[in-house]
Amino acid sequence: MTKNDTLENTAGKAWSKWGPYLSERQWGTVREDYSDNGDAWNYFPHSQSTSRAYRWGEDGLGGISDESQQLCFALSLWNGQDPILKERLFGLTGPQGNHGEDVKEYYYYLDATPNHSYLKYLYKYPQAAFPYEDLVETNGGRSKVESEYELIDTGVFDEDRYFDVFVEYAKAEPEDILIRISIVNRGPAVASLRVLPTLWFRNTWAGSYEMAQPQLNRGESGNGASAVSASHAELGDYQFIAEGAPEWLFVDNESNNRLLFGGENHSAYVKDGINDCIVLGKHDAVNPEGFGTKAAADYALTVRPGETKTVKLRMRKADGEAKTAFEDFDAIFEQRTKQADEFYQELTGELPGQQGLVLRQALAGMIWSKQYYEFDVGRWLDEHHGTATRNGDWGHMRNHDIISMPDKWEYPWYAVWDSAFHTLALVRVDPDFAKGQLSLFLDERYLHPNGQIPAYEWNFSDVNPPVHAWAVCMVYRIDRERRSEGDIDFLKNAFAGLERNFHWWETRKGPDGDVYQGGFLGLDNIGVFDRSEHLPTGGHLEQSDGTAWMALYAQNMIQIGLELSKHDPGYQQKVTAYLDHFLEIAAAMHDIGCEHRDMWDEEDGFFYDVLRFPDGSSTRLKVRSLVGLLPLCAVTVIEADTLTQLPELAARYEKLVQQKEHLAEAIFCPVTPGRENRRLLAILDEEKLRRVLTRLLDEQEFLSPYGIRSLSKYHQDHPYQFHWQDQTYTVAYKPGESDTYMFGGNSNWRGPVWLPANLLIVQSLLAMHTYYGDHFMMECPTGSGNRLNLFQIAKEISCRLMDIFLPDQNGRRPVFGGAEKFQNDPHFHDNLLFYEYFHGDDGSGLGASHQTGWTGTLATLLTIFGSLDHEELLEGGMQGVVEALAGTDENTTQLAR
Predict the structure, then answer these.
(1) What is the maximum span of the chain, computed from C-alpha positions, in angstroms?
(2) How far apart are CA 799 and CA 794, in angstroms?
(3) DSSP 780-793
């Protein structure tokens, strides 16, 4: 943070107690699903969210909460046309969308500081009735091969008849939060709007005999302000102050059982009372005595074309007078916005303006995507009385934390391999939070007693790629560079949890020796079959990616163990053990002994999954995809200085490789010295590496104008087909959305560009460059005659990824595709959406539109490669980032030459 914030933090003030921890969708989640059939989408649909209280969390529009989500604040709006208040974002459920679940709103995370001293959010609200039914019906009538029907397509933004609603937060102190809501009429005519800033308590008292019910009460008013007091037994007392003289509307955060289920209400004034008062004119739906557990200030505004109207509010501990709440309001906002500018100016350095804008919004989106997550799985299972259809083996889970999540609407729950990638960008702005996230999932409240790391709430037992150890290595190194010393306690604790998880993989996911069967491993529909299900052929898959992931895992444990060995010699034996694991795993990808399970295809120069039939025979599934590129990413470089510092370990290292010579011969020799006497642990020797890179850098295969595709474009004209009995299974290149129903059809690894996969490839290229040096060069693109070293190739791929978001020579951002409003309208053009993945040919954004979580890792690449004069940028403080990605202590200036 800025110097001022750092001083305040060191004074022991809890600046992160309040933050953007409110989800944007709580309905339709597994936590809220108490059905007998596990149909979470239909058990709690959007249509009930106005009237039905949640059990495990809350949602809202541009909202904040305390770190336990006991008291929440968010924005509600009404344009006079909608059938309900706009209290939360709308989107299609998985079954409704022709490509799965899909939010149908336009909102943007424009700015954020890591401790939330300043936050800025934008919501675009149509002045016409929101087209709920049109979006559901039109998308429901479209096939998988058709595009999605978006909000912009409905015509509600024609003639700019909408409001830009900006919500900003500035903290005077950790528990003194100023709120500024600015409403701009972008349309050609005067328009009216009801603005309802809303404060409420999460319902934690229902069914509890111990929890005292909190309360909101109408407070003092006068001198141009009015207030509400908030009292909570654990959180304490707060004062919420609104400028002007809005009418305060009070209800209870309780379900309208009478409306929903024909039952009895627990309160005379239930959750949807404010909605009914404003939209239906039912003034008796709110409590006339001025108390409850949910309250909203009602501002009725009339806004002329181009005019901006502002609403000011303040929430603070109950120790001040309402009449003084706004005297320093503007000065505090000016101070906090200035600090935010200074913070990002220091971070972006010499980045050109557009690159700095992308970096700032990417990181803002990641900060805004922090969410409070509570899920007591044991209690949830008990409440199902034995009818729960998922997560029955996870009764130990007690989650109640702030977690970095992929998306606040489509993914209002954690996905562990997503979160691992998030930390690589978050460590640049909030290293303690980044390290805390990695440690969290290794905590006994998350980690299964058998050592498995939970995947995601739809199925905690599913298998995510084991990237946690990789992220621990990266975060440790970047943090060490920033603080001039490494956090050994973090590394030691992480190593202990990772050992348990590695053992789980060894015992549960390696039944064929060292060839792994990990399930879908996060790549959804990339394969011939749904890899989470039983194969139609019987038998099993020997997975190239699963085995490569485990080779990388072993390498990461070696890296961590080497660092810890410098402080504690007891780790040296563990390093040797993981070196042994690596040799066995890496060699298993080649034809060792009489198993005939070689994943390497000598004719094609590529790795493939092997399909093993029940009778022991096998065939390669010759799909050129990320499955075959991941062995490239299993790369670790060991510094000569490290082995010099640890002579006993160096001797063990050499001896083990000699003993395992028959294995080492199948991979790159781990004792062959490279540049500056470094050692390289890699699956690919130099010949195989060149053959794989030839395909990787071929623009007719993997190299897109916008990064590395997940499936080779070769399969566009040559789809792979596998025939079994009366069925044909086909994998064809699809640069855009999926045309299959595998995994709900809402994810596509059959052609689009995915940021995390690209980041792994870039990291491996940087690492190999430190070993091979400048003499190792490849044509890039293949066939062009242009020869680059591995660092330059990493930069080329990174620049193509950055081009997705940057304006081209015509001022168009590829991420926006053919959406002319986004491309040309000044009120849209610079507000970015960080999609889940990107079209393999034109770079347009696809999938979840706000998955800043792992697409935000672009910030890491921007800090390294973004500057036009990137050597100056590197010398200006990027050394640690490059070292972390390369996995070495390489001198950055040498690395960049």
Answers:
(1) 88
(2) 9
(3) SSTTS--EEEHHHH
Q: Are 435 and 442 in contact (CB under 8 A)?
A: no
pLDDT for position 283? 97
The set of residues, in sequence order, having a beta carbon less than 8 Å from that of 601 and lying 6+ positions away, is 607, 608, 620, 622
* Residue 891 confidence (pLDDT): 46
Q: Buried b / exposed e across 648-676, counting CB within 10 Å, b at 16+?
A: ebbebbeebbeebeebbebbbebeeebbe
Q: How far does Cα 673 stand from its chain's mean position?
A: 38
Q: How many helices (H) and strands (E) does the chain have?
A: 28, 34
Cβ-in-10-Å burial (0-12, 13-18, 19+) of 320 comes to middle
Q: Chain centroid to CA 254: how far?
A: 32
Per-block average pLDDT, block size 10, for the chain (897 residues)? 42 85 97 95 97 98 98 98 98 93 97 98 98 97 92 98 98 97 98 98 82 90 89 95 95 98 96 98 98 98 98 91 85 98 90 93 96 96 92 96 95 94 94 97 95 94 93 95 92 98 80 60 82 85 87 96 96 96 87 61 93 89 95 95 94 92 84 94 95 98 98 97 93 91 77 96 96 96 97 96 97 97 98 97 96 90 70 42 64 42
Distance CA 46, CA 52 (A): 10
Sole residue written with tokens 């399970």: 597
Sign of CA dihedral 385, 387, 393, 399: negative
Cα 149 to Cα 162: distance, rounded to the nearest angstrom: 19
Q: What is the pLDDT of residue 264?
A: 97
Q: How far, in Å, CA of 119 to CA of 73, rounded? A: 14
CB 208 within 8 A of CB 188: no
State how far the Cα of 400 lies from the Cα of 789, in Å rounded to an integer.
47
Q: Would you say 517 and 540 are in contact if contact means Cβ atoms under 8 Å apart? A: yes
- Of 838, 873, 835, 869, the closest CA to residue 852 belongs to 835
The whole-number pLDDT of residue 596 equals 52
Residue 823 DSSP symbol:
H
Q: How far apart are CA 274 and CA 109, in angstroms?
A: 27
Per the confidence metrics, is the pTM higher than 0.90?
yes
Contact 129, 84 (CB under 8 A): no
pLDDT for 506: 85
**pLDDT 10s digits, 253-266:** 999 999 999 999 99
**Which residues have a Cβ under 8 Å from the Cβ of 45 and sit 6 or more positions away?**
27, 28, 93
Q: What's the alpha-carbon Rg for the chain, to the nearest Å?
A: 28
Q: Angle 49-53-54 (CA atoms, 0-180°, nearest 5)?
A: 90
Q: How far apart are CA 392 and CA 460, in angstroms?
A: 9
Tokens of 155: 């015509």
Q: What is the pLDDT of residue 352?
A: 86
* pLDDT of the residue at 597: 59
Q: What is the token pair recorded at 706?
A: 């916008």
Q: Which helix (H) or strand (E) holds 588?
A: helix 572-588
* Contact predicate 822/800, CB 8 Å: no
Q: Report how far residue 220's alpha carbon sits from residue 495's, in angstroms, rounded to the nearest whole number.
A: 55
Q: What is the pLDDT at residue 666?
A: 78
> Which is it for strands 837-838 and 787-789: parallel, antiparallel or unpaired?
unpaired
pLDDT at 3: 39
* Residue 215 dihedral angles phi and psi, to the nearest 5°: -155, 145
Contact 452/412 with Cβ under 8 angstroms? no
Within 523-543, residue ranges assigned H as helices are none
At which residue do the structure tokens 């181009």 appear?
Answer: 306
Are 543 and 521 spatial neighbours (Cβ–Cβ below 8 Å)? Answer: yes
Chain position carrying tokens 């060490």: 480
Q: Could you give the angle at the alpha carbon of 883 between the alpha carbons of 882 and 885, nearest 5°?
A: 65
Confidence at residue 523, expressed as pLDDT on a 0 to 100 scale: 82
Q: Are 62 and 74 a contacting pair, CB within 8 Å? A: yes
Q: Which two tokens stand for residue 266?
A: 């627990």
Alpha helices for 803-857 (secondary structure H): 820-824, 852-855
